[in-house]
């Protein structure tokens, strides 16, 4: 069934525990650090369920209707339907909700097309997928160990407790987990946390190999939020992106959290804990959504860059027009890479269609490498304009200051208030704390750059590349002793 935004907000009042420093938050729908972003998530549910969108953004199976991001694709049309919903969701946040409800749902949907990979836990995975789509759940994930804990030998040598989340006990009715996982983006707004391992584990790290799903309000689970930017962005005019789209990132802390066996998907298998993402379409489904989401952000950046140039008349300068043209080319490049993932879709696994993995990983690498440079182009176009504005829009409340502001801050192209509004948006893209978080976030969105390049290496058709070289070399022979050209074969 499709739930409403109101229903999702009600589910967020479930006794979850979130810490902002030492402050304990139990209702994220009302707290000034989270309430606007919670409404942004609720709006996604309302959009999907609106009568005019229902057919396009969901699918019917039997007597039930499910969100389209739970659709296991069997045709290119299914892939197109998934992409269209990803795009609609991404457009709502202008690409700034990276782990929106369609992200982890796509991972689990991809896994459901090849459940045999999970061995003895295959039925658990399928049932969890059914549970997610039936209840229209929003899951986030925490799939990375804390940085300092990635070499457990260090802790053993120093006789320190290992902080990484691990199984500490097995009972008849499930396992008990304790420790930390990062970085649960969107967890404060989620129903469940998918706990797993995207970084390879050492063969001896069996206890750490646990992959499971845990409700956010599970007993013993707490979320330690980084500094929320929404809390300091109380006026939308001043920080239009941070005000609504700070999805937050949290460390997941578990202290003797019970996980029933039916919510366990990998256990005591250090290799499989990571392979479930790449031996099923999970990683491809989830990161196709990432590509689409980045494309929405790219379109905002291009639009703001053009508007900033127009605000001062700089768009008439040939060098500036060239810069804007380059941004347009970059945006179109990513759009083509996304379209190609459907056009050259793979028949994998048997009976299903999957977005082209090579194109998806290439786009992922493109986004990771390109974001900083793209934002820097916008930064250069802004110049000092972002610092010429008054501290805030309160100047409009003083008649004398308002007159001066409207007179001297206007340009022939744009009035003072609209110009300030534009530069406040630009600053939230290039220079605010919110912007800084996104600069770091995009650089490590799918892991460190070497991880993404290794994905590209793994998927490359090396046999084909080598054959191209061999075909060319086979077309000519080795010169004879006299130096004359040997005949081609």
Helix content range:
40-55%
The CATH architecture of the largest domain can be given as Beta Barrel
Q: Give the CATH class of the largest domain.
A: Mainly Beta
> What is Rg?
25 Å
| Uncertain residue segments | none
The major β-sheet equals: 6 strands, mixed
Q: Distance between the terminal alpha carbons, to the nearest Å? A: 66 Å
Number of helices: 17
CATH homologous superfamily heading of the largest domain: Butyryl-CoA Dehydrogenase, subunit A, domain 2
- Structural domains: how many: 2
What coarse outline follows from CA principal-axis ratios?
globular
How confident is the prediction overall: mean pLDDT? Answer: 95
* Widest sheet: strand ordering: 2-1-10-11-7-6
The structural class is: alpha+beta
> In the CATH scheme, what's the topology name of the largest domain?
Butyryl-CoA Dehydrogenase, subunit A, domain 2
Beta-strand fraction estimate:
5-15%
Number of strands: 14
If you had to describe this structure to a student in words, what would you say it looks like?
This protein has helices at residues 5-11, 35-49, 54-57, 76-92, 102-112, 122-135, 152-157, 242-245, 272-278, 282-312, 318-343, 357-382, 399-408, 416-430, 433-443, 449-459, 462-473; strands spanning 18-20, 23-25, 58-61, 64-67, 139-142, 166-171, 174-181, 192-195, 211-215, 221-225, 250-260, 264-266, 346-347, 353-354. It is α+β, with helices and mostly antiparallel strands and 489 residues long. The chain folds into two domains: 5-278, Butyryl-CoA Dehydrogenase, subunit A, domain 2, CATH 2.40.110; 282-467, Butyryl-CoA Dehydrogenase, subunit A, domain 3, CATH 1.20.140. A hairpin with a 5-residue loop joins β13 and β14. The longest helix is centred in the middle third of the chain and has 31 residues, at 282-312. It is globular and about 75 Å long.
